[in-house]
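User: Is it possible to get a 3D structure for a protein together with its bound compound? The compound here is zinc ion. I've pasted both below.
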Amino acid sequence: MDDERKVQLSEDEWRQRLSPEEYRVLRQAGTEAPFRGEYTDTKTEGVYRCRACGAELFRSDAKFDSHCGWPSFYQPTENDAVILLEDRSLGTVRTEVRCANCGSHLGHVFEGEGYQVPTDQRWCINSVSLTLEPAKDAQAAPGGGEAAAAGSGQPA
Ligand SMILES: [Zn+2]
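Assistant: Yes, that's possible. Here is the predicted structure of the complex:
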């Protein structure tokens, strides 16, 4: 995986692939309304993927209740799943989070706010930038007996 970005589409192509709200957030660095996003309070176990390109970004075990109005994580799955950019758009300096795979806007990361999480970071991510893929264990497994005793953990 040496190439910087695996997904490169024109803005017209993105516009066709995404809903208007997804396009506004992912491609124009917009922000969804607080407490409205579909994953704000989601506890479902699973993997959060980039809504634009499907790359894995976050896992549910790093999600925590920040009560800030957006899904919050204390770390990405892999540090190189995301890229960080300085954002001065609101007159302060914030750190913007983008998908490393396709360059789409995800949200911002804040540090040192005092949340009781291992990293002292809050990755504040728009629901509309994410797609939750529920863990296989969280779904009803179809009847086969043999594999049932073995532990899970096989990445699909
Ligand atoms: Zn992406």
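Residues 2-134 form a domain with the Metal Binding Protein, Guanine Nucleotide Exchange Factor; Chain A fold (CATH 2.170.150.20). Residues 11-17 form the longest helix (7 residues).
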